[in-house]
Amino acid sequence: MKYIKKILTIEKVKVRDIAKKFDTPTYCYSYNQLKKNINDFKKNFESFSPLICFAIKSNTNVNLIREIKKFGLGADVVSIGELMMALKAGINPKKIVFSGVGKTSKEIAYAIDKKILLINAESKSEIKEIDRIAKNKKKKVQIGIRLNPNTDANTLSQISTGKKENKFGVNEKTFLELVNYCTGSKNISLKCLSVHIGSQILDHKPYEKMLNVIDKIIVKTKHNFEFIDLGGGMGISYGDNNKKLSYTKYNIAIKKFLKKTLYKNNF
Questions:
Q1: Higher-pLDDT residue of 187, 165
Q2: Nearest to 188 by CA among 216, 223, 215
Q3: Biggest alpha carbon distance in the chain?
Q4: Is residue 73 helix, strand or coil?
Q5: Which among 6, 9, 30, 156 counts the fewest CB atoms within 10 Å?
Q6: pTM of this prediction?
């Protein structure tokens, strides 16, 4: 949004005209800005072509999700409602990851039936429940395990999710135990190591620390993970003087991690 001749506009349309036509409150989205944001992100990380999953919890407008889908993006969901919304918008199930704590048995069963890419588990009890439901359905389910990397994202404490005192994910000891459990299950296929260290991150250094932790854990597991789910909300600059996250530096860190990990872990 910007002012043109002291009149507030969005994509050159006067906001007051929108308000007159649709009344208030009205939510407006700039398609051009959405397109620019997605293409900028994809371009900065095109060297390893990651699956980019839009966090549905950030916006559940089905029309917006339909537009995002057209750029080839997947979805990260944290509830059955969000999963339904992503599917309704046409997101390919094989591009959907079900994350988050407190999944119910009904939600897990629904996700299994929809054959989504991954269910990212947060605890041993959740993995056992996935195993139980999958066995009853006579299916093999792809899952990830969320590791708590004990990494400070250097953001507000209220939105930190990656330190050991935070309630999300499992510690290293439990993670290693769960890898062994999954390996011994006939109904679970452990495909992913998942992490999420917080939101509104404006510095690439916490991501570098996170990647170092992941690298060491992978060596200890001796497990070939097909996916590494790198979570942690990339921050928005709310002012001209605010620091901006360097995609370039984060991309370099990921490429170093991939090169090192692939070399070490040729089990």
A1: 187
A2: 223
A3: 67
A4: coil
A5: 6
A6: 0.89
What is the full DSSP assignment across 146-208?
EB------SS-GGGB-SSTTSSSSB-HHHHHHHHHHHHT-SSEEEEEEEEE-BSSB--SHHHH
User: Euclidean distance between the first and final Cα of the chain, in Å?
Assistant: 52
Q: What is the pLDDT of residue 263?
A: 57
Q: Give the Cα-Cα-Cα angle 252, 255, 256 (nearest 5 degrees).
A: 85
| Domain residue spans of the chain | 99-264
Which segment of 16-25, 80-89, 234-243 scores lowest on mean pLDDT? 234-243
For residue 143, give both structure tokens: 């899952």
- Of 52, 56, 57, whose CA–CA distance to 40 is shortest? 52
Out of 81-90, 92-101, 161-170, 217-226, least confident range: 161-170
For residue 221, report the phi and psi dihedrals to the nearest 5 degrees.
Answer: -75, -30
Q: How far apart are CA 172 and CA 150, in angstroms?
A: 9
Residue closest to 93 by CA, chosen among 70, 120, 113, 122:
113
**Bridge pairing between strands 13-14 and 7-10:** antiparallel
Over residues 190-219, the pLDDT tens digits come to: 999 999 988 888 888 999 999 999 999 999
Nearest-angstrom CA–CA distance, 113 and 111? 5
Residue with tokens 């921050």: 235
Query: Can you name the CATH fold of 99-264?
Result: TIM Barrel (3.20.20)
Residue 160: pLDDT band by 50, 70, 90 thresholds? very low
In the numeric block, the tokens 């409150």 are attached to 25
